[in-house]
Design brief:
Layout: H1 3-18, H2 22-41, H3 49-116, H4 121-146, H5 167-176, E1 180-186, H6 193-213, E2 218-225, E3 229-236, H7 251-261, E4 265-270, E5 276-283, H8 287-290
Parallel strand pairs: 1-2
Antiparallel strand pairs: 2-3, 3-5, 4-5
Helix pairs in contact: 1-2, 1-3, 2-3, 3-4, 3-6, 5-6, 6-7
Amino acid sequence: HDGGLMIAVIAALYAVAAAGRLQAAVVLAALTVIATGAGTLLGNRDVNGVALFMLTGWLVAVVALGWVRHSRIAYLREAERRAAGEERLRIARELHDVVGHHLSLINVQAGTSLHRFHRDPAQGEAALAAIKASSREALRDLRATLGVLRQADEEAPTAPPPSLDGIGGLIGTARAAGLTVHGGVTGEADPPTEVGLAAYRIVQESLTNVSRHAVAAEVTVSVERGPGALLVEVADDGRGAAAPPAGPGSGVDGMRERARALGGELTAGPRPGGGFLVRARLPYGNEARKR
């Protein structure tokens, strides 16, 4: 006749433990055992010592199961929160690379156009045309990047992600901004998509930093598709630092994060003979290639 009461007590203990209130569940279980034991001592022969021992085991097991349930839910929530944070960082890095690069070039091209407009209208007109092309490219890349925030019922973007094939376009845009850029992509290997995207962003950010922070006339871009890794080098002859001051959102920090995410490494600093050098090694065989 008291089976229903015991089931209610066990369900309540499980619910309290599953809610994360372990101390309260232990206190309630202890009070249940003490009260039942007191009834046995007072003459209740329906619950003997063996039954009391078994009841204690059941209560401990129920509390443990409830706590395991709570811990599992907490772990899943933390994993979801961490994944969301990593996704936000990835989106922020993409926006920084895309928008920062194009706006920096537009700023340089606008200054060139204002400086040369009256003395050489032809060059001023060419700079305005480059500004138009850069702004159009910035809008296209921005829409593609923001596509990851689309609703579930929207169509996925059909434009492919930037790759090594787009580095020539980056070099051309930098030349239109007034820089003399040498080099390009060499080698016959076919790197994974993630490696090509990382190399594109590293070259893009490096050229952006040269335009914004370095007083440079010439830049050398070298992307070598080796047998097991992609080697990227961007060197300039500037007198200033081709990198923003260290701090949150720094482009160099973002490039290092990209390289580390692929199992590679990136160094950036002044060259012995003057100027600034960014060098990265991006291996092909890593976890990013399998995803």
